[in-house]
Amino acid sequence: MTFKEDLGRRAALVEAYLVGCLRDRNIPARLLASMEYSLLAGGKRLRPVLVLAWNGLLGGDADKAMPFAASMECIHTYSLIHDDLPAMDDDDLRRGRPSNHKQFDEATAILAGDGLLTEAFVLMTETCLVKGLPAERVLRAIAVLARAAGSGGMVGGQAVDMELTGRTGVPLDELKKMHAMKTGALLTAACECGAILAGAAESDVDNARRFGRKIGVAFQIVDDVLDVVGDTATLGKPVGSDEAMGKTTYPSLLGLDRSKTLAREYVDEALTNLSGYFGCEQEFLWQLARYIVDRVY
Amino acid sequence: MTFKEDLGRRAALVEAYLVGCLRDRNIPARLLASMEYSLLAGGKRLRPVLVLAWNGLLGGDADKAMPFAASMECIHTYSLIHDDLPAMDDDDLRRGRPSNHKQFDEATAILAGDGLLTEAFVLMTETCLVKGLPAERVLRAIAVLARAAGSGGMVGGQAVDMELTGRTGVPLDELKKMHAMKTGALLTAACECGAILAGAAESDVDNARRFGRKIGVAFQIVDDVLDVVGDTATLGKPVGSDEAMGKTTYPSLLGLDRSKTLAREYVDEALTNLSGYFGCEQEFLWQLARYIVDRVY
Predict the structure, then answer these.
(1) Which of A21, A203, B115, B214 has the smallest CB count inside 10 Å?
(2) Residue of chain A whose alpha carbon sits nearest to that of B137
(3) How many other CB atoms sit within 10 Å of the CB of residue B4?
(4) Pairing of strands B97-98, A97-98
(5) How far is A297 from chain B (nearest CA, A)?
(6) How far, in Å, are A59, B163, B179, B180, B272 from residue B158 at the CA level?
(7) Which residues of chain B have a pLDDT value below 50?
């Protein structure tokens, strides 16, 4: 099995769970349609896959951790719906289709986002209440994820992103800090929560967190690079939108070559946290980290 | 101490906790200002007070349950911010002040709501991780609250409310169901979670849930009545806004007198769930239930 096949297989397992996870919850029909429109719009399912890979690497059971993994995709999806709103990035297109508020309407999109964020926490509790993982572990993982997704993490990062948009002379460390909050926090939490749910030792949880931090930065740099050199069909959104919106990016500060080198350096640092582990999950995480940066080479 | 003094004393305890609960979380300054603008805008703090009263009635410690109680106010506040948005109810005024998106801007208001909802879950975990309540209890309470606040509860109720607005001939049972989701679910969860966090027996948890359901309906009927007979200064919002927006209400379906009688009947049913308990928390809950409906007499 090639790495891409392995990634596809793992994403398909997450997909299968996501398809049913909002049913039997008494959700009004149009709201459910709007939530599923965005949740089931494809995507690499990177965050759930990271939860399950770190969980598996440290001895966890994928079936038991699955609701928690799925919750990360709910949170990621809600953030995309709200980011696309007219008052925010005002994007009409997401993953090659009309964004949620274009397909439905603004009120429904706001509520679909609110609903996905809240259902994510229902899913997290199910790793204990349905799947039987110890309440202490699940509660700790919820705390980690809530902080990462909240106003000191992802939501705060989006607020800072809005403030920086259109501003010139944004220094590199401000850009880094914004991205660490906006995209890095959730990727980091995915790795960390996977380890916590496996009942791993603190040193393993530390490795997971550090790995997540480094690939989080690499991921964002590559995202910025692809916005310059990618094509609309692959990205599912217009190329050059960062520049059009007046966003400071790694390429705009460092140039393309230096950005690509920096992404590779972060991936190399991430990989140091995988030494000392063995087996197919270690191999997968190694290749996943390389894959993030290889997309721009 | 009169009932109103008791209510004020309890609200003040919640207030004191809310003032500091978002600090030390690395929240960007403008976002924090926006979150606190709405969170600390006054209000009766009814949901936290209900958590603490049921918790106390069943032997719980108010200090330990406080973060969970505060989380309910974060969720209530986020729902008000999002409901006021131009794409939703488009309200410029809330509690006698400019609504969040008028005071700040739409993007900030959306993010402040997202942030308050997410921080609520951080607070919930703190009842275990900081205050030491058993993880099993806290996890169960989180599951109850997340379902109540989510797309099958409060968020779903707002979606149905938007669908029903402007429609004529809405039957009473559809109105009841919508309100049971939109406002009833959270009030019910407040009582139920208070009991769960106290480690109460299942029969006590059932009583708390039933009490919450009944006062939830009464509360909404009274809210509708006050929108007709109240005054702007007391309400902090324009009188008659329901009718102006084309909303079906209890008075519009049943008339004022029948609505007031119905509210009183629901309160009387709620009170049956307090028989068999004794002491100052029982007395307080009794008077609180009466107070809800007495506001229109």
Answers:
(1) A203
(2) A135
(3) 10
(4) unpaired
(5) 35
(6) 42, 9, 9, 11, 30
(7) none
Q: Which of B155, B177, B196 best tests the A interface by mutation, with the highest count of A CBs <10 A? A: B155
A-interface mutation test, from B23, B74, B81, B121, most A Cβ less than 10 A away: B121
CB B51 within 8 Å of CB B124? no
- What is the rounded CA–CA span in Å between residue B241 and residue B231? 12
Model pLDDT for residues A197-249, shown as the tens digit of each residue: 999 999 999 999 999 999 999 999 999 999 888 776 566 666 777 888 888 99
d(CA A47, CA A10): 11
In chain A, the domains with their CATH numbers are 3-292 (1.10.600.10)
- Joined together, the tokens standing for residue A295 give 């997309």
- Yes or no, beta carbons of B115 and A150 under 8 Å apart: yes
The residues, ordered by sequence, that sit 6+ positions from A94 with a Cβ below 8 Å of its Cβ are: A38, A41, A80, A84, A100, A236, A237
Residues B76, B277: Cα–Cα separation, whole Å:
28
Alpha carbon A78 to chain centroid, angstroms:
11
* Residue of chain A with shortest Cα separation from B23: A152
Which amino acid belongs to residue B230? G
Residue B28 at interface with chain A, using a CB cutoff of 8 Å: yes
Using the beta-carbon criterion (under 8 Å), do A32 and B151 form an inter-chain contact? Answer: yes
Q: Do A117 and B118 touch (CB under 8 A)?
A: yes
Percent of chain A having pLDDT more than 70? 98
Of A28, A115, A150, Cβ closest to residue B118: A150
| A163/B22 touch (CB, cutoff 8 Å), yes or no | no
Kindly report the CA angle at A15 between A9 and A17, in degrees rounded to 5?
115
- What is the token pair recorded at A163? 């403030």
Query: How far are the Cα atoms of A19, A250, B110, B235 from residue A30, in angstroms, in the given order?
Result: 16, 40, 21, 32
Q: For residue B163, how many other CB atoms are within 10 A of its CB?
A: 18
pLDDT value of position B232: 64
Contact A119 B156 (CB under 8 A): no
CA-to-CA distance for A72 and A51, rounded, in angstroms? 9
Which one, of B184, B211, B201, B182, lies nearest residue B284 by Cα? B211
pLDDT of residue B237: 62
Residue A42 vs residue B133, higher pLDDT:
B133
Q: Contact A156/B26, CB-based, under 8 Å?
A: yes
Please give the Cα distance from B282 to B277 (Å, whole number). 6
DSSP class of residue B1 equals -
| Nearest beta carbon to residue A27 from set B107, B135, B152 | B152
Return the structure tokens found at B16.
Answer: 């004191």
Residue B227's pLDDT is 87
Q: Which of B11, B28, B24, B19 is CA-nearest to residue B115?
A: B28
**CA–CA separation, A159 and B228 (whole Å):** 39
Write phi, then psi, for A86 (nearest 5 degrees). -50, -40
Q: Residue B54 in contact with residue B194, Cβ under 8 Å?
A: yes
Sequence-distant (6+) residues with CB within 8 A of A201 are none
